[in-house]
Amino acid sequence: MTRRLLAGTLIGFVAIATGWLAVRAQGVAPQASHRDAATARLTIDALLDIRHPSNPVWSRDSRWIAYTWERAGVSNLYVVAVDGSAKPVALTTDGELMAGLFWTADSKALGVMRGGSLMRVSLDGKQPATPFWAETPGRGLVVSKDGTRVAYLVGGGGPTVIHVRSLVDGGDRVVASVEGAVGSVAWAGDGERLTFMVGGGGQTIRHEQTPAYSGSKIIYTVAENAPGPPGQSFIVSASGGEPTAYTAGGGGLGGRGGGNRWIDASHFVVDRTVEFKRREISIGDTAGGDPRLVHQQVKEKFWSMTGGAQGGAQASPDGRWISFLSDRDGWDHLYVMPATGGDAVQVTKGRYEAWRPSWSPDGTRIAFDSNEGANPGSRHLWVAVIGGDPARATVTAVTSGRGTDTAAQWSPDGRLLVYQHTDPRNSADLWVVDVAAPASRPRRLTDSMPPAIDRATLVEPQLVHYAGPDGQSVPAYLFVPRGLDRTRKHPAVVWIHGDGVNQNYDGWHIERNYAVYYSFHQFLLQRGYVVLAPDYRGSIGYGSAWREGVYMDVGGKDFRDAAMSADFLKTLPYVDAARIGVWGLSYGGFFTLLAVTEMPTTFRAAVDVAGVADYAMYYEDPYHGGWTVSRIGTPEQNPRAYAQASPVSKVDRLVTPLLVLHGTADVNVPYLHSVRLMDELLKKGKGPIVQFTMYPGEFHYFTREHVLRDAWTRVSAFFDANLKK
Known about the structure:
Layout: E1 2-5, E2 14-15, E3 22-23, H1 37-40, H2 44-48, E4 52-58, E5 64-71, E6 74-81, E7 89-90, E8 98-103, E9 109-114, E10 117-122, E11 130-131, E12 139-143, E13 149-155, E14 159-166, E15 172-179, E16 182-187, E17 193-198, E18 204-209, E19 220-225, E20 232-237, E21 244-246, E22 267-274, E23 278-285, E24 292-298, E25 314-315, E26 321-326, E27 333-338, E28 345-346, E29 354-359, E30 365-370, E31 380-385, E32 394-397, E33 404-410, E34 416-423, E35 426-434, E36 443-444, E37 462-467, E38 473-479, E39 490-496, H3 512-526, E40 530-534, H4 544-547, H5 557-563, H6 565-570, E41 575-585, H7 587-598, E42 605-609, H8 615-620, H9 625-632, H10 639-644, E43 658-663, H11 672-683, E44 690-695, H12 705-723
Parallel strand pairs: 1-32, 39-40, 39-41, 41-42, 42-43, 43-44
Antiparallel strand pairs: 2-3, 4-5, 5-6, 6-7, 8-9, 9-10, 10-11, 12-13, 13-14, 14-15, 16-17, 17-20, 18-19, 20-21, 22-23, 23-24, 25-26, 26-27, 27-28, 29-30, 30-31, 31-32, 33-34, 34-35, 35-36, 37-38, 38-40
């Protein structure tokens, strides 16, 4: 394997003809004009105006990209020319939910499901969306790869009828009538056949909880998907005929890794993780027989690669290769093996993690993003040229500079990559780079920051390290307000990210759910707070040993890694050791609760956003029980770990003012956790130092404008009241 950099290193910023976009290279943000200090200060309302683009979809002629642009929980459909010749055009403005976005065969319009109807949307944004047909014919519509037909289902109480309807002339054909329940239908790899499953899936069991501490009038429900007998997979010609049964292998054709699952017209790849430890890749055959195992990896602890890495098996479009990610050398790396079976070749190597691989349309190259380099929170795009031998693959850098470049997608003509970029002065935006022209610079397509935000006032993170409880080095990002008087002592806030398997980045977070917290930290920085964001063990981006350091020890060393950030802050001469606050979301909220009960005098104020109050409750929840068992076993197997992972049982130690925020529609950490927490706090007489705000109908990641505005206003006032002299 050889590595080289693209000729023509990316440099500078170049304004395009319209003057509203800038071309980024070396990761340097466009410098905003310096304004009067009073008008340049961030406001919460300005932060709410930051938008987040997602789901970019190439037109079939590689000239346009359609995407959704979300502001405070409201998403609309946009389209932008790839050449950057004009601003993005809003195709919808009502924020109505969309699904199944696709381009018509001629690339002149878009199709999307809205309000239960399949709608055609023109590209000029001036004409209203119109239905393809007067009435959407059935359920589960899925578009063929060439954009000319849709398959759909009718019925289900008795026989299920599979139809195919033309998007060109509206002609409709009955493909098959099937006895039994069919949940969905999909197009096979050749685009001329359809696959579906009859039966399968377990029964949904509704659990109702009315704990004594909540009272009998409020019922909390949990839906458990109980396992049932496996369904039977079938394939049938889209022209009609008799369906043929085959074995899908239990992994299905969706695949956690995304990408193409079909090797050819009859063969497909299947991923399966068994008991959270064994990862298997198999090749199935629609002609019959059980899938053939071609790769297996067994973990001593647990399969810890995050789903966001998109590490599942993908077949190359030409059917020659299968790619996947593996951490068998301790780091997530790209592997390629023959589609016929054989040894897998490791294409990338080193102390970094390669994620989100994407095959080029011709099946000769794989684009991916990696955090190779000194800063683990910085990610850039690379292209591996596989050619005829993965062992001779060349790996070439496509982007460079400050920030993150992630989630690359090839244009249909194989020349361009569209990707998401963030950095310390730019929230997530879409960029495009011409891989076929090595000297070309990336081109910016969107600008998600509102004009009210002066980029020149934003604070860049600094990567630092400090010792954890066992001496291991803990990485963290330090933010120091611009122009801070370092001869005086200032308040500081520790931010603990959630998910466990997540990380901080060199600038805005790549996920919208955590990017809103990065935005708010910029607000705190302008109010004079120093901010520190640790990547405790369990975090991604640092190899499998670091992220598996939580095994059988949740709430142990991983929590101490985060909490000992206060010790680091106390070494900074401009931080007041008596005025350090802590807060976090989800797993970070769990750590926050542990911090103020295990180390009750370390922090002066704490904010718990939807944190786990007790991992025994998490284990009992059918939605999360398996996740918990994979890391700390059952309460009977590991009572020590469950005891240390129960901050609710230690709230009698609380002496620190605590603010708790939680949404009632939370399924990641059910709202009941905070109900029980508050009950215990009140029983222990902690009411005078505790504030609790619940948000009706809000999900785990705060999304809606009124919720974000209220939450950030409360958090800001709470920290001001407790951390400022």
